[in-house]
TrEMBL record:
<dbReference type="GO" id="GO:0022904">
    <property type="term" value="P:respiratory electron transport chain"/>
</dbReference>
<dbReference type="InterPro" id="IPR016169">
    <property type="entry name" value="FAD-bd_PCMH_sub2"/>
</dbReference>
<dbReference type="Pfam" id="PF02913">
    <property type="entry name" value="FAD-oxidase_C"/>
</dbReference>
<feature type="domain" description="FAD-binding PCMH-type">
    <location>
        <begin position="37"/>
        <end position="218"/>
    </location>
</feature>
<dbReference type="InterPro" id="IPR016167">
    <property type="entry name" value="FAD-bd_PCMH_sub1"/>
</dbReference>
<dbReference type="InterPro" id="IPR036318">
    <property type="entry name" value="FAD-bd_PCMH-like_sf"/>
</dbReference>
<keyword id="KW-0285">Flavoprotein</keyword>
<protein>
    <submittedName>
        <fullName>FAD/FMN-containing dehydrogenase</fullName>
    </submittedName>
</protein>
<dbReference type="InterPro" id="IPR006094">
    <property type="entry name" value="Oxid_FAD_bind_N"/>
</dbReference>
<dbReference type="InterPro" id="IPR016166">
    <property type="entry name" value="FAD-bd_PCMH"/>
</dbReference>
<dbReference type="InterPro" id="IPR016164">
    <property type="entry name" value="FAD-linked_Oxase-like_C"/>
</dbReference>
<dbReference type="Pfam" id="PF01565">
    <property type="entry name" value="FAD_binding_4"/>
</dbReference>
<dbReference type="GO" id="GO:0003824">
    <property type="term" value="F:catalytic activity"/>
</dbReference>
<keyword id="KW-0274">FAD</keyword>
<comment type="similarity">
    <text>Belongs to the FAD-binding oxidoreductase/transferase type 4 family.</text>
</comment>
<dbReference type="InterPro" id="IPR004113">
    <property type="entry name" value="FAD-bd_oxidored_4_C"/>
</dbReference>
<dbReference type="GO" id="GO:0071949">
    <property type="term" value="F:FAD binding"/>
</dbReference>
Length: 480
């Protein structure tokens, strides 16, 4: 149980804007985005500065009270959700939402952890630059959460994940000490890279309070197209052909199966299909030029014309204006929301080598649907990164209990296929609590042991986001 003297100290340090123990105020932040994991917390702590974060962590470390760092609470792995005991406190970074510096000359932005991604996009556009990472949750996801999950999204093809865009980090470590590693050093070989441990660390090794981010030139012109085609193999061939024709102008290449598009059209008001006829598979392409002219449209048009001529693509439309381009993106970005409304599904975030993905999708889908009659694979997403969300919809009429019963078996089955294909069971969403047991089951013991050793060294009392990312060590004598 959390001691009340601690609550009093925290309340005194953070003031009314930064502290609440009111269960009603805490409740929305104690469950995950999908509403599947419901936890409880003794308090919601919302510090407004790095110094306040440091004091909170130090006080909680002394009292051995666990902290669950939280940004926008959009985790797809229930990483920011406390357990149901109510012992932990949620440490929200949302009040730390200042952009401390924005420098177009050095192409860098220093953002506090609570800066919302869409706000950073707006601010960088105002100085003729952009932060080249985006995803469907951009209106809520924060820089701290994106960094802590090493988030991906729909521009990884061209710019990489968060890890490649982070130049420096400021963090509070589990004993309350502050590490200032914000300077954007291009070269730094002083040994283990703490920055890269914290990125993707899911709040288990410390609290990221600010990040120095790399910017790139703003979009001068963009061309967005929606393509209908027959198979993921054809889609990957199309990507290779576009890359040969247009180089790295192709920034996004997102695969959308007909089932996913149908779900969006059925559940998201105001959406309509871009092509007259339905196709088994669709691809959303965005090509970008940093200059207003020449626009990438001509090159994209010619490449698609050729793909239609050879039969690689079955149909295609290039957005005629920004509104239509945004409508295409809305279809893509609404898939998760539509799936949420459609009913239970076993959600997977998997990667294999890029060239192996079409075969994995073909054979993996057939295997899952035959092993679990009535289920339906809905695999969509970042084909060019070798990462799809290989989700498996429950049979018609299944209730929410399906998730915990047969859904768990479906997940193990699908993950076994991924491991057999040499892939990863978490490409971009992280482990959180959702994939913890699967990580323990399927990870090389040497890697797990190293992960536990790092955690124990930096967080000896286990106060930082317990129950996430790092599976507990097996009981003595239980084997690895
Ligand atoms: P939270 O959900 O609050 O936290 C995520 C994790 O980071 C937790 O473990 C938390 O403890 C930790 N954390 C948060 N802030 C800090 C901090 N300051 N210091 C230390 N630890 C911290 N993800 C992708 O990678 N690609 C996608 O395409 C994508 N699309 C999405 C679409 C939708 C509609 C939704 C709802 C989610 C999507 N996500 C995607 C998942 C999610 O948006 C990302 O994981 C995002 O990085 C989470 O940011 P957040 O601020 O909401 O973090
Ligand atoms: C996406 O690419 O849309 C996501 O990462 C979200 C999801 O997996 O549902
Ligand atoms: Zn994704």
């Amino acid at each position: 149980m959390t001691s009340s003297p601690l609550l009093e100290r925290l309340s005194a340090r953070l003031g009314p804007k930064g502290f609440t123990a009111d269960p009603v105020a805490i409740a929305p932040w104690a469950e995950d985005w999908r509403g599947r994991w419901k936890g409880a917390a003794a308090a919601l702590l919302s510090p407004a500065s790095t110094e306040e974060v440091a004091d909170v962590v130090r006080l909680c470390a002394e009292a051995r009270v666990p902290l669950v760092p939280q940004g926008g609470n959009t985790s797809m792995a229930a990483g920011a959700t406390p357990d149901a005991s109510g012992d932990a406190m949620i440490l929200s970074l949302r009040r730390m939402n200042r952009i401390r510096a924005l420098d177009a000359d050095t192409d860098s932005a220093v953002c506090e952890a609570g800066v919302i991604l869409a706000d950073l996009h707006t601010a960088t556009a105002e100085v003729g630059r952009r932060f080249p990472l985006t995803l469907g949750a951009k209106g809520s996801a924060t820089i701290g959460g994106l960094a802590s999950t090493n988030a991906g999204g729909t521009q990884v093809l061209r710019f990489g994940t968060m890890r490649t865009l982070i130049q420096g980090i400021e963090a509070v470590l589990p004993d309350g000490s502050v590490w200032n590693g914000l300077t954007a050093l291009k070269k730094d070989n002083r040994g283990y890279d703490l920055k890269h441990l914290l990125v993707g660390g899911e709040g288990t090794l410390g609290v990221i309070t600010a990040a120095n981010l790399r910017l790139v030139p703003a979009v001068g012109a963009r061309s967005v197209a929606w393509i209908g085609l027959d198979t993921p193999d054809a889609a990957l061939d199309l990507l290779r052909m576009l890359e040969a024709a247009m180089g790295d102008a192709v920034e996004s290449f997102e695969l959308v199966p007909r089932v996913a598009l149908d779900l969006v059209l059925a559940h998201v008001p105001g959406t309509r299909a871009p092509l007259a006829e339905p196709h088994a598979w669709n691809v959303l392409i965005e090509a970008v030029s940093p200059m207003a002219a020449p626009s990438p449209e001509k090159a994209l048009y010619e490449a698609l014309h050729s793909a239609l001529g050879t039969g690689l693509a079955a149909d295609a439309v290039i957005a005629a204006n920004e509104r239509q381009a945004e409508n295409f993106w809305r279809l893509r970005d609404s898939i998760s929301e539509a799936e949420k409304q459609a009913g239970p599904a076993a959600k997977h975030d998997i990667s294999v080598e890029v060239a192996a993905m079409p075969r994995f999708m073909r054979e993996g889908s057939a295997a899952v649907e035959s092993a679990f009659p009535g289920t339906r694979v809905i695999a969509f997403g970042h084909l060019g990164d070798g990462n799809v969300h290989f989700n498996v919809g429950a049979p018609l009429g299944a209730g929410p209990e399906w998730q915990e019963s047969e859904g768990t078996r479906v997940t193990s089955y699908a993950h076994d296929l991924v491991v057999a294909a040499g892939g990863s069971i978490s490409a971009e969403h992280g482990i959180g609590q959702m994939r913890l047991a699967e990580l323990a089951r399927l990870t090389d013991p040497a890697r797990l042991a190293a992960q536990r050793a790092i955690k124990a060294a930096l967080d000896p009392h286990g106060i930082m986001n317990p129950g996430k990312l790092v599976p507990p060590a097996p009981a003595p004598g239980a084997g690895s």
